[in-house]
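ok here's the first one, seq then struct tokens
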Amino acid sequence: MAAFMNDDFLLSNDVAKKLYHEYAKDMPIIDYHCHLSPKEIYENKTYQNLTEVWLYGDHYKWRLMRANGVEESHVTGEASDYDKFVAFAKTVEVAIGNPVHQWSHLELKRYFGVEETLSEANAPLIWEKVNAQLTGPSFGARDFIVKSNVKVVCTTDDPIDSLEYHIKLREDKAFPVKVLPSFRPDKGLEINRKGFKDWIQALAAAAGTSIESYDQLLAALESRVDFFHSAGGRVSDHALDFVPYAETTKEEAASIFAKALSGEAVSLEEETKYKTYTLVFLGKLYTERGWVMQYHMNAARNNNARMFAKLGPDTGYDAMNDQLIALPLARLLDAMDRDDALPKTILYSLNPTHNAVIGTLIGCFQGGGVAGKMQFGSAWWFNDTREGMIAQMKSLADAGLLSQFVGMLTDSRSFLSYTRHEYFRRILCNLIGEWVENGEVPNDSELLGSIVRNISYNNADAYFPFE
């Protein structure tokens, strides 16, 4: 019987152990999509206790606590940080089989040297042990990033953002990690969402112009793309809760935009046309600048209206959606490719039933001498589990080249989440090891070790055009 979370955790055979310990373990990290705060990185935010660094803003943990019967006062409410930590410890103790159980213990081990399993009984001991370290030196936000061997961090940023802290970080030669913005223009696409007109005004102010027409909107977006580019941005990201596609013209999109600005109702068909033209326009901008485009698809957000009114978004009330993506996504990508203006693209679906769809669809748009131009993105959010990662990698291998995969990202707001790269790499090595054990793959350590290193870091380093 193996010890819990030992050095060979998740590694079930000798090939897997060799691949992980000799090839994957010490590779650097490129975190090309996350939700870390550039301000907190610049200021090297420090923490007074474990709850502050571990539970604030972490909806993965909040969902489990609620499922364990923890009152909201001890999740996001007014209870003390210590009482919230104890409530989480009680939850972790019984969360076997959930990745948060394993992630939590990895985080305690790797960052704080805690070898004990977390439980209600030893919560006071772990609380004191970790807090004593957090209030000492070398446990700020930057320190966690450096200790994790991260080379690049791409945050998620609205086009109206000033990028003040990205610019300051570029000028700070003492910090060895690149912290770069990612362009997330969702609010400019959600024409039917509350606050759209206010956001357009904010975009106009950020771009130093007025926006009274669709042409002016497109010009302002291009201006902000160029501003992000000047700050080192080379990645965009789009949350497509449904994938829009409808044949349209610029004139139609302009008329729909004018309706929205005047306060008139915009139909779903009109919204789809507006989004289609705008997304194709943005794709061309990204292509011209050599950027990578990301589509995160099929999230059903803010499902609990009562709790959304109380707590707002990103608090643990989202789920998988089941919108069809195959045909609209194929047509949307083709609309860009027709003009040879489809950028490098990473596709993620929150619904794993789309794994084969994405695995086959990316093969329709590969080419141009770019290895892995079209990527099936790492298992995302609710798929960020052992089985979810395996399913994503198998689908990619079934239909294309797993060896060209750009690998893992954190997609997190926590500075302790880099252990997810270790979790991913162990699963990757074990999957390949099982193939070798079954005689499905040659036992060639040099070849397989090179593939593992590439997926862990080298592919992303080659794929993203970071300065």
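and now the second one, same deal
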Amino acid sequence: MTLAHGRPYLAIPGPSVMPDRVLNAMHQPAPNIYEGALIDMVSALVPDLKAVARTAGHVAIYIANGHGAWEAAAANVVRPGEKILLLVTGRFGTGWGEVFARQGVEVQALDFGRRATVDLAQVEAALAADKSHKIKAVAVVHVDTATSVKNDIAAIRAVLDRADHPALLMVDCIASLAVDRFEMDAWGVDVMVAASQKGLMTPPGLAFVFFNDKAAARQVRPASLYWDWAPRANPALFYQYFGGTAPTHHLLGLRAALDMIAEEGGIEAVWARHEKLARAAWAAFEAWGREGPMELNIADPALRSHAVTALRIGGDDGARLRAWVEHKAGLTLGIGLGMAEPGDPAFHGFFRLGHMGHINAHMMMGALGVIEAGLVALEIAHGKGALEAAAKVIAEA
């Protein structure tokens, strides 16, 4: 028998759960793209996006996914033959490096593995060795969706400043924007990339590149017609925001999502909600792990993202558990992306819980309850008291 009939819960780390309000905002006839309400709406939407990113700089909007944001950022600031320093803490750092390399950029990668944050001493040494300043940018992922590690962006900026190095600081916030605290201007970030389908609670299809005046002054020219961020950030005509026809219905959905963020109390309140729910999940996972194979991939809570939690459970139990909770209870968990190659049997010993965007306490407690039911049904060893531990976190004032 299955108890999965009813509304499914997609608890993967993106696309996140789409609020009914966002979907309903999109469910209308196509608007006029030449004048009227849509044009006025986008003009008001841009400052609200910047407020979420905590920047007074610029934003370019693309009809793309996160990979498109990677490519747009790379195309605008680094020329073929130039060099970047790439800081890798999981699968998505590697992916951004591949985009740079395909554009003819030399990539010097420092790989810190799948269970650690960036080692600042190694970054400092690499910058100190770059006497002629061949490195044009330092690129890093704030939250790697595969490993759930969260990097200290302000500390990386401090390393650049101590080295008096002119490289741009480029940060991928695709998983973390509107989930984990991110302060673009205060932390000295020059370029930041994001996308619509995670903390911004809008279907995949919009990508964003935020950049400051320093990055604008360093723009590669001539940039390609489509990826050029200058007309998108400062359009003379409405169509230039998007390099052509506007993504009308995604914009309507994004407007509703930004309104929801504002009505919750602003981005600070959104960060606080995600922190509380993440801590509830961690409390449950830690309780299960005391008498079983469950292990959080990142041991130190201070280094974990509030957007996603990566778990190690070993054997084939990750795959078994994912299959059981989806088919028996309607809960979809994330695969262990990047933790082992798909053909490697170890791939089946990992899973991820996404907790980003449109999620509240009963959704989190429901997901944890279903996971416990799966552990019981599959006879996977686990400690007691997990749901009580999660409930205690949620009950805290």
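notes on #2: The chain is about 40% helix and 15% strand. The chain has two domains: 9-16+266-395, 31-257.
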